[in-house]
Amino acid sequence: MRARRQRKEKHHPQNQQYLQSVIEALKANPEKLNIVKTNVADYQDQQYLKKGFLLALERMEWLFEANLTIDEFCQQILADDYIGIRIRRYPLIFKGVLD
Asked: Residue 87 contacts by C-beta under 8 Å, 6 or more apart in sequence?
């Protein structure tokens, strides 16, 4: 039996840099979390979205329902678990946070 080759994780430096700046903006101004909630609601109203994007939106709702502090919320986004990876794959969720 052949050993499976592990996939190389796709880390785009531009995405990581953008997410780091989003995390810093959220920590500096927790009210910007409302922008993220609005984005999630707006995208869920759209009819044709990729299944992966819909899963990311669902995971964001889970985080909102968990009533996490802003530090725990940011830590969960940066975590290398299923939820964090799924959310980081779609940085469009955080549109408007840096404005």
From this structure: 56, 59, 60, 63, 77, 93
